[in-house]
């Protein structure tokens, strides 16, 4: 079988000891009973009782190996190629996901459950397919989504977040920006009907960010609702519909 990168992954039997290096996939797999390890950034579900293996960009490979996993799950954007290569070199199978659109996320999740883990798709995935499987909603507003400050960085094109917003009727003004998927910008460039300030990876608060955009609509939003693919896709649908209607 092959992961989303097209890399063969040899799994002679269904994995029963899995380590997740992707917070959204940790949440997605929490109900399978196979998770034995996750990163320090894996905050959902709140009562997840597994070993921690440090961060997404600096995983403790020795701690991962000590857990004797049948499979490690990573993501092309979230994790470093070097860590994936070294885990594989140590004999640990790694399944890498690639997600830049909502349909891609839904298909990737389906393959992860049915092909990699060889379990049935969870009910929330079917619900997410129904909610997000139709045509994108008509555009009702333009938005910009900063993800870092000092320097300012925003969500650009070919991103899951941008596609999620567009399907909810919100057009990302930095979609197609020639500077890349997460361009560095000046604050004065961040102009849209609304500026959405998520709480990850940078924790924007009411005291940090909104004051940079006087006279413009600014919303503090859940980063999990904008960037995670998994059970949060269901809740994100209603949240983004309300947001689009209120801008």
Automatic annotation (TrEMBL):
Protein transport found in the keyword field: no
Spans through the membrane: none
Upper lineage: Bacteria, Bacillati, Actinomycetota, Actinomycetes, Kitasatosporales
UniProt KW Signal keyword: yes
Ranges where the Fe/B12 periplasmic-binding domain occurs: 17-247
Annotated protein name in UniProt: Cobalamin-binding protein
Listed PROSITE patterns: FE_B12_PBP
Source organism (scientific name): Streptomyces roseirectus
Classification via NCBIfam families: TroA_like
Keywords of the record: Signal
SUPFAM superfamilies on file: Helical backbone' metal receptor
Entry's family note: Belongs to the bacterial solute-binding protein 8 family.
């Amino acid at each position: 079988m092959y992961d989303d990168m097209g890399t063969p992954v040899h799994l002679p039997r269904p994995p029963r000891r899995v380590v997740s290096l992707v917070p959204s996939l940790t949440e997605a797999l929490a109900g399978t009973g196979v998770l034995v390890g996750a990163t320090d950034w894996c905050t959902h579900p709140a009562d997840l009782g597994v070993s921690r293996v440090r961060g997404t960009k600096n995983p403790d490979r020795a701690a991962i190996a000590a857990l004797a996993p049948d499979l490690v799950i990573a993501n092309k954007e979230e994790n470093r190629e070097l860590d994936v290569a070294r885990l594989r070199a140590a004999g640990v199978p790694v399944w890498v996901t690639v997600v830049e659109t909502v349909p891609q996320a839904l298909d990737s999740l389906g393959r992860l459950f049915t092909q990699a883990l060889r379990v049935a798709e969870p009910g929330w995935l079917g619900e997410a397919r129904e909610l997000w499987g139709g045509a994108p909603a008509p555009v009702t507003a333009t938005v910009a989504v900063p993800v870092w400050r000092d320097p300012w960085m925003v969500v650009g094109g070919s991103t899951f977040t941008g596609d999620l917003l567009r399907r909810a009727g919100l057009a990302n003004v930095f979609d197609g920006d020639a500077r890349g998927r997460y361009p560095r910008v000046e604050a004065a460039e961040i102009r849209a009907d609304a500026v959405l300030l998520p709480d990850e990876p940078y924790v924007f608060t009411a005291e940090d960010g909104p004051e940079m955009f006087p006279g413009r609509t600014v919303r503090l939003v859940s980063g999990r609702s904008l960037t995670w693919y998994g059970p949060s896709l269901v809740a994100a649908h209603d949240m983004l519909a309300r947001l689009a209607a209120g801008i």
